[in-house]
Design a protein that fits this description.
single chain; alpha/beta; TIM Barrel; 16 helices; about 40% helix; about 15% strand; globular; binds flavin mononucleotide; Diverse_substr_monoxygenases; FMN
């Protein structure tokens, strides 16, 4: 019998959770110590999540109006902490859940990344993952001494080589190199630790790594490329993919495409788990959930401004210069190509205005509104049609929302046999690949 189970992941920012609502408490003041995020990790583990993904970027954006006003007013890109130091704190408070940190191949030196990930894999007991991004903004590049970011596809070419190098560094120690032989007083057998002598087109490193290889061999590799070049990169390297696709048909097409690319590369299509972005809206009753969803979808000038601030940052087109009450003019980007394409597709052949699109814009693959029982049913049906592998839940979190998912939706999914009931393996990779 085929396994009907799917995986769950959560997209998390190391920034303030929702802070100015009725049920948001004081987290807007205290989030900086990371404790609320650690509590979220515990809740998600209780829910049976495979992993949480800590996103990252490194800029204060002035993409909108040529000013940081909107970015900072809504806390879109800043303030945000470095996610890497949070990983061991989360690991210490949990036992099973995988924890994925984001690091950019454009800005992190490969040796540093290989060493950091290896260290984190040991600190988490084999539960770390790396979300590989190439970064998308000139403003971020300028914080690292560059004038502009490399061209979109070129960034992925560099990233391919980068992954080859860090993999070689992780493999520079043979698994049985540490002998701890008391008789000879030998801690490590030096004949089992090798230089890598990597001399590529973009990167060079002598090696070996000066720490031991990761417990998992290599951390779980996570990726979110949506363009053709991004998908090829993901199909080559990723164990799990974060994907936005509107509706079951597009979700299926996306997953089929990734699986076909993996197979064409000689890999096993089941070895890449595609996670679709959703933001379930839950209530005690269908009516309560629908009222919540309606309130979230209501037109609002703040929502339009924040959406356009966000899009301006990640595409570096200043959307404040466009007429809100006209269709969107033709725009291109060297940043997030697929995100821009998704946004523009909401224009339905230029029949909707920029204001309407910005009001409607959510990065959400499926509308999931209702009681936990109803939403669990929708998720199960969607996964059957798509073929697998799981969902990435997003949304500005607060403790109440996390609990609705972990303590409301997850038990319903588990009762139906749709998500894991416990963690059968020690490492993140083994659990992720278990079904
Ligand atoms: C769910 C999700 C999470 C992402 N997280 C990050 C991130 O943390 N940092 C980042 O720079 N880019 C992030 N991205 C952007 C992707 O790495 C990629 O640049 C984007 O999806 C566009 O890919 P494309 O240019 O191949 O279409 C994320 C994208 C998605 C869909």
């Amino acid at each position: 019998m085929s396994d009907a189970r799917f995986h769950l992941a959560w997209f998390l920012n190391f920034s303030s959770p929702a802070w100015n609502g009725t049920f948001t408490g004081s987290d807007g003041a205290t989030w900086t110590d990371g404790r609320v995020h650690v509590e979220m990790a515990r809740s998600l583990e209780r829910g049976g999540f495979d992993y949480l993904m800590l996103e990252d970027s490194s800029m204060v954006s002035d993409g909108y109006e040529g000013s940081s006003r909107v970015d900072l007013k809504y806390g879109l890109y800043a303030p945000k902490h470095d996610p890497m130091p949070l990983i061991p704190l989360m690991a210490d408070a949990t036992r099973h859940i995988g924890i994925v940190g984001t690091a950019s191949t454009t800005f992190y030196p490969p040796y540093l990344l290989a060493r950091r990930m290896s260290t984190l894999d040991h600190l988490t007991g084999g539960r770390v993952g790396w979300n590989i991004v190439t970064s998308s903004e000139d403003r971020a590049a300028q914080n690292f001494g560059m004038d502009t970011l490399f061209e979109h596809d070129h960034r992925y070419d560099r990233a391919d080589e980068y992954v080859d190098l860090v993999t070689r560094l992780w493999e520079s120690w043979e698994p049985d190199a540490v002998v701890k032989d008391a008789a000879t007083g030998t801690f490590v057998d030096h004949t089992k630790v090798h230089t890598v002598d990597f001399d590529g087109k973009f990167f060079a490193s002598r090696g070996p790594l000066n720490t031991m290889p990761p417990i998992q061999g290599r951390p779980v590799i996570c990726q979110a490329g949506g363009s053709p070049r991004g998908r090829q990169f993901a199909a080559t390297h990723a164990d799990t993919l974060l994907a936005s696709a509107y509706g079951v048909e597009k979700m299926k097409a996306y997953r089929d495409d990734i699986r076909a690319r993996r197979a064409d590369l000689g890999g096993d299509p089941d070895s890449v788990k595609v996670m679709f972005i959703v933001s379930p809206v839950l209530g005690e009753t269908m009516q309560e959930a629908q009222e919540k969803a309606d309130a979230m979808a209501a037109d609002s000038a703040d929502k339009v401004e924040a959406a356009l601030g966000h899009l301006s940052a990640l595409t570096e087109n200043d959307f404040s210069t466009f007429d809100l009450d006209a269709p969107v003019p033709t725009v291109t980007t060297n940043g997030h190509r697929s995100t821009l394409a998704d946004f523009l597709s909401l224009g339905e052949g230029n029949t909707r205005t920029l204001r309407e699109i910005a009001n409607a814009w959510t990065i959400n693959s499926l509308p999931l509104v209702g009681t936990p029982d109803h939403v669990a049913g929708l998720m199960g049906e969607a996964m059957q049609e798509v073929g697998g592998d799981g969902f990435l839940i997003t949304g500005k979190p607060n403790r109440r929302y996390i609990s609705e998912i972990a303590d409301g939706l997850c038990p319903e999914l588990r009762r139906r046999g749709l998500i894991r009931d416990g963690y059968e393996h020690r490492t993140f990779r083994e659990n992720l690949m278990a079904f």
